[in-house]
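tool_call predict_complex ligand=adenosine-5'-diphosphate
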Amino acid sequence: MPRVLQLAAEIYPLVKTGGLADVVAALPPALVRAGADVRLLLPGLPAIAEALLQPDTVGEIGPAFGAARITLRLGRLPGSPVLAYVVDAPYLYRRGGGPYQDDRGADWPDNLQRFALLGWLGTHLAAGELDPGWTPDVVHAHDWHAAMACAYMRAHPATRATSVFTVHNLAYQGLFSPGDFGALALPPHYMSPEGLEFHGQLSFMKAGLKFADRISTVSPTYAREIATPEFGCGLDGVIRARQSDVSGILNGVDRDVWSPESDPGLASRYSAERPQGKRECKAALQQEMALPPDAGAPLLAVVSRLSGQKGLDLVLGVLPALLRLGAQLVVVGTGEPALEAALRDAARAEPLRVAVRLVYDEALAHRVIAGADAILVPSRFEPCGLTQMYGLRYGTLPLVRSVGGLADTVVDASAANLRNGTGTGFVFNDATPAALEQAVERLVALYHRPSDWQQAMRRAMAETFSWDQAAVQYMALYRGAMTANR
Ligand code: ADP
Ligand code: GLC
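tool_result ok
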C-alpha cells in the first residue's frame, strides 16, 4: 500500500479560490478507496488551522522562513476520512484576506517564504525527520504553491520518496525576485536556467517542472497543449524536454457535493429518471434573480472566476445575440474589476434579461447550475474545468470552447452526433464573438426541439467523471515512478 503525501494550499470547503480546492478535497478519499495510505500537508491558514479536529502535535520546528515558531499538527478535517498535517506558523499564515493575496488583491509580499515552507516541510516529512511513524513513498505536490517540495527533495540526500507534480494551471507560476533566492536555503546552482531561474526571475512552477520525478496535469488535452508555445506560458520548452514524464489525468466530480438527486440546497431535487424538479429549480432561480418567470426562455448561466482565462469578454460580445434569441443570462462570479463593471452595466441595461451577482457563493453556484438550461464556459484555455462537468451532471448542457479539459469532457451536439446519440453540449473553436454566437444559435435551436434537448440532457447526466477512475490512473503513475526510483 503506497504511502502518499498530498501537498496543497487549498481544500474545499475551508479555503477555496478555484477548482484546485475541489480536487484536493476529493482526490485523497478516492486514492484511499484505490488502496493508498494518504495524508495531506496543508498550510495553517486560519480556516484550516481552526477546523482541525483532535490535533496531535507531531513536532515543533525551530525558526524557519522568518517564522519564529512552527508547529506541525496532525488531525482530521471535518468530513474528511484522511489525516492532515497542518503547518501552524502564525507569523506566515494566520491573517485575514485570501490564501495568496490580501483583501485588495495584492500578492502577499512573503509568499516566497509562505509556500517554500510548505515544500520544505513536505521534504522533511519524506525524509522521515518529522514523523518517524509515517514516511511517504510519494510526495504529490499541487500547483506552484507546493512545487518547491520537488526541488527540496532533489537537494535532500535522505529523501527516498518519489515526487509527483500536478499542474492545475500553468498561468499562475509563483514568480519572485531572484534576490530572494537566498531565503530558500538551496545550493547556489539551483538558481540557474537548469533550475529555478526563469527569464531573470525565480519560478516555483519551474521547480516542479524541472525536479519532479513525474509531471501530470488535469486533462489529456491540456497535457499536450502545454508543450506548445500557444499554451506553454513560456515553459513549453521545459515541458517538451520532460515529455516522457508528462501525462494528463482528467479530474472527476465529487458526487457527495454535486448530485442533483441529493443536493440539499435546491428548490427541488431531480434526476435523469425524474427530471421534473429541474423545472422548479429554473422557476426558483428566475424568481431569485428577478427575471420573468418564463419557462420557455432558454436560461444560460456562467459561474466563474472573472479572469482573462475564462473568455467572459466573448460572452459580453454576444449579449445582443443572446437578447435577440430570447435567452436569459445569469452570471455569478468575482474577479477583474473591468469585467465586473462591464457585467454590472449589462445587468443594469437589461434587468429583465441579464442578472449578475458579483459574489463568491458556493450555495448560489449550486442553485444556478441546477436552475439554468445551459452553462457557458468559453475559456481561452482551460486545464480541466469543473463547472462544465457539474453542468453535465445537472442536465445543464455546457457550451464550451474546444480547449483543454473542456474538449475532453463535452461532445458537440452536431447533427451527426445527435444522429449517432453522442452529443452532450456545444463546442466551438475560435475565441471570437462570432464563433461563440454561432454556437449559441445552435444551442437555442436545439432548445426549441424539446425531444432532442431532453435526449442530450439524459446523455449528459449519464456521464460519470468518476474520481475513482482518476485515482486508479494516479495509482499507476505513483507505482511507475516508485519502480523507476528504486
Ligand atoms: P478554476 O479553478 O480555473 O476557477 P474550475 O472550473 O476548475 O475553474 O473550478 C471553479 C470552481 O469554483 C467550481 O467549483 C465553481 O463552482 C467555483 N466557483 C467559481 N466562481 C464561483 C463563485 N462566484 N461562487 C461560487 N463558486 C464559484
Ligand atoms: C485550475 C484550472 C481548472 C481546473 C482546476 C482544478 O484552477 O484553471 O481548469 O479544473 O485547476 O484542477
